[in-house]
Design a protein that fits this description.
The chain contains two helices and eleven strands; from the N terminus they run H-E-E-E-E-E-E-H-E-E-E-E-E. By secondary structure, it is mainly beta. It has one domain: Porin (Beta Barrel), CATH 2.40.160. Strands 1, 2, 3, 4, 5, 6, 7, 8, 9, 10 and 11 form an eleven-stranded antiparallel beta sheet that branches. The chain is elongated, with a radius of gyration of 19 Å. 28% of the residues are buried.
Length: 200
């Protein structure tokens, strides 16, 4: 299911790239950047620090003539570093953001605001998750949803630099509280991204 979705989006972005040669309102490129993620727990008994990682993948954008509105989508491989109880592990994700945009055209520069949903799928094996959370991991959802809010600047419709904050909508799972039977806490992943994209 996930592989089919990934391939479908990859084909769609490739087709967008072909059409981008014919119109200035549709473009495709590649995006990469640095992410800072932090696990948020429902209980104050659990703590987590900000951890750095990276992401990379193909991206496409569409712009409506004159109005300034548009949309963008990407298929990203993201590596996040998670820390829990002094154990650090790298968790890899497939991320699919789909945003609506509004741009303020300033000739060679354009400022933009973007917001929209993001689907995340954890690619890391169950062994990595068990190493990180140990026996306290009661439940884990590989599929999660978030909501992106961000903005940035584009130079000559080619180079894009932006900032995005992903607000978690669904929880990543549950952990059991230490030495307390039948007490669980939900945890979610909050992410801040510094992104750089180039459109061909």
């Amino acid at each position: 299911m996930i592989k089919r979705l990934f391939l479908t989006l990859l084909v769609a972005l490739t087709v967008a790239g072909v059409h981008a040669q014919k119109t200035k309102y549709l473009a495709w490129g590649v995006e990469a950047g640095v992410n800072f993620n932090k696990m948020s727990f429902a209980s104050e008994d659990f703590k987590s620090d900000n951890r750095a990682g990276f992401f990379v993948g193909p991206k496409a954008k569409f712009r409506v003539p004159i109005l300034g509105f548009g949309a963008d989508a990407a298929v990203l491989y993201s590596l996040n570093s998670a820390k829990f109880n002094n154990r650090s592990r790298n968790l890899s994700y497939l991320e699919i953001p789909l945003n609506v945009r509004y741009s303020f055209d300033l000739r060679i520069l354009a400022l933009y605001l973007a917001t929209g949903p993001q689907y995340n799928y954890c690619l890391s094996g169950s062994g990595t998750l068990e190493e990180l959370y140990g026996s306290r991991l009661e439940d884990y959802s590989r599929s999660t949803w978030g909501w992106n809010v961000g903005g940035g600047v584009e130079i000559l419709n080619r180079l894009q630099v932006g900032l995005t904050y992903t607000i978690p909508i669904s929880s990543s799972g549950e952990l059991s509280a230490a030495n307390m039977a039948n007490v669980f806490t939900n945890f979610k992943q909050k992410t801040f991204k510094i992104r750089l994209a180039y459109y061909f």
